[in-house]
């Protein structure tokens, strides 16, 4: 196993030195200037190999290892695997063909060894690996070529279990879009069943219908190894009260494109956002507890400039609030708010 790690490190170092030599040769031949040929992307095939072991360093057979040139394919598959008990092969079979051109799938043998070849046009591409097996955690790791080989030489997969969250909304119906954050894990999961969770005690923070009227939030701390659904009481995040007003943007043209208005309320920063109507009127419904920072966030649906000015943002200390007035200016013909 130690020899395998040394071999992949040497392979990565040889590629690194080759790239340096290639760059120097191209610059030398052109008097220090890149030639047209040196600017043409060179498609290369890179083979990676390693071993997968369990928490006791024992080799694991039958582990799926997906290697990706770039992050998109592995990110997409990893996200789906966190919500589904399917294998990597099953997920890939239902995905667009472009995933196959950016990735390769291998399965470990009886010694836990795997190898896979991927194609990349970028000599410094990010190489990611997603590895998992039934009853094991899901690992996503990697690095930039040509040093990725040494980082993938050994992968450890610990025992893992699925977790089911049972949401309790009282007399209301639990539904809508759910986002779950697992404390100290740093993941946001869009669903109430989470796969491949390493056994242990976690704090779960749950948000239903984020940013929408009727939003609910809840949390629980539980041992994931219990094998039972984890109950989470979901409470209303909003106050049921509204903020109403008008917003004006001084534009150097006759555009009447709607302004976008946002509110961030209370210590939990309960968020709401709405467009104005044709007359500049707006109503933010079921906002959080005060104080609320209310602001013009965009004069055009796809703009993200930070507005400024004496009335582009106001703070509301009491609810409900009526007759709130917001005002912003436009800096130039690009229609950026200032």
Note down, in words, how this protein is organized:
By secondary structure, this protein is an alpha+beta fold. It has 6 helices and 22 strands. A hairpin with a 4-residue loop joins strand 9 and strand 10.
Q: What features would you highlight for this structure?
A:
five-stranded antiparallel sheet; alpha+beta; Immunoglobulin-like
Question: What is the oligomeric state here?
Answer: single chain
Instruction: Please give the number of β-strands.
Output: 22
* H/E topology pattern: HHEEHHHEEEEHEEEEEEEEEEEEEEEE
* Largest sheet descriptor: 5 strands, antiparallel
Q: Give the amount of beta strand, in percent.
A: 35-45%
Structural class: alpha+beta
The CATH class of the largest domain, by name, is Mainly Beta
Compute the number of helices. 6
| Global geometry | elongated
Helicity, in percent? Answer: 10-25%
Total domain modules: 3
Cα distance, first to last residue? 60 Å
CATH topology of the largest domain: Immunoglobulin-like
Uncertain parts: 1-30, 34-41, 332-338
How does CATH name the architecture of the largest domain?
Answer: Sandwich
Q: Any idea what the radius of gyration is?
A: 27 Å
Going across the major beta sheet, what is the strand order?
Answer: 10-9-12-13-15
Let me know the average pLDDT: 81
